[in-house]
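Chapter summary example.
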Amino acid sequence: MKLWDKGYDIDKLIENFTVGKDRELDLQLARYDVQGTLAHITMLESIGLLAADELPVLKTELGRIADDIEAGRFEIEEGIEDVHSEVEHLLTQRLGALGKKIHSGRSRNDQVLVDLKLFYREKMRELAKQVKALFDRLQILSEQHKDTLMPGYTHLQMAMPSSFGLWFGAYAETLADDMQLIATAYHIANQNPLGSAAGYGNSFPLNRTMTTRLLNFEDLHYNVVAAQMSRGKTERAVSYAVNAVSSTLGRLAMDICLFNSQNFAFVSFPDHLTTGSSIMPHKKNPDAFELIRGHSNRLQSMVNEVSLLTTNLPLGYHRDLQLLKDVTFPALEQLAKCLTVAEYMLQNIRVREHILDDPMYDYLFTVEDVNRLTLQGMPFREAYQTIGHQVQEGTYKPTREVHHTHEGSIGNLCNKQIAEKMNRIYQELEKK
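The structure predicted for these 432 residues follows.
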């Protein structure tokens, strides 16, 4: 069955090529297709395109389809193009001519769009929830290890004293920035395209404000052409959010892989969370974080894929846009898995204490001693040269004292303020 069927058969090779992965991927859109259809037929009844006694019959049958979807019994049959066709096919099969009335006033274009908007809106909320869980774990670790010092690096050279509280907290606050992009993608997705039809509106007196309210969208895509242009625009916003989170996650994974190595040995994990070697009996590899790093790097290509698919498209709908699902759906699923594993691994991370007691880290304290001399009245540049000469001559002996009190430093992590920043953004999505 095809919603555009005109009584002739299409070549099988072309049919299979054009359908692509829709039957597989569209299963993720099924519940949203039912939601969109329920709102649409409620509106149709209000403007007289469905009789009052027809609406409850359709709603009941759509409810049964929704139950099948939630129970995992729903499938898109062979020969049916997509989820939209399957839902209409089932209604027509069960209700006869009444099932054929549900498509009045909409095109498959705005039907797909409303499904995707609802899907991305929900996925951004799910992503936000997972990012918040990782954020909370990092903040717990930051507080737990706020007094445990570790080396800080620039250029991969020992630089200044840092702390595990500062390190964990840095990634927490970076996730707060990433949440801004998740919220932006959420708001872009949270606009109603239903009623834009094929992108040029409809001669039926549709009530688009009503469907906006029924589907709990925060606003309309008012201009019907702009509504269609949001296909690809929404995915691009989603891809930026995925990119940001993946970048943070990949960088954290790299740090952990580095710090877990024997040359650093700053952190470790229980044996059952590591893997071994087939030839080297001593190996305990952080494979989970290596794979998180690899997946995170791949996920950052999503922005480029979405951009390339949409960059040179002229106005209106084009079948190229179908391929966006091939990019975004698996990416969102993979990122969710990475966030779950990262948070689980961090529940079990072990931090080594007294790292800076080793004389190899003496030079970390040079800045502290320059500042100490400056506070005692010596001009900063003179203090810098004094400590610098000691380093060059091999006579430098660190005081090993660290006094950082300003906002966001070792002694004043500001985790409460960072949590407030995150919560302000997160609540934008949670309250909807």
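To summarize the output: The chain has a mean pLDDT of 94.
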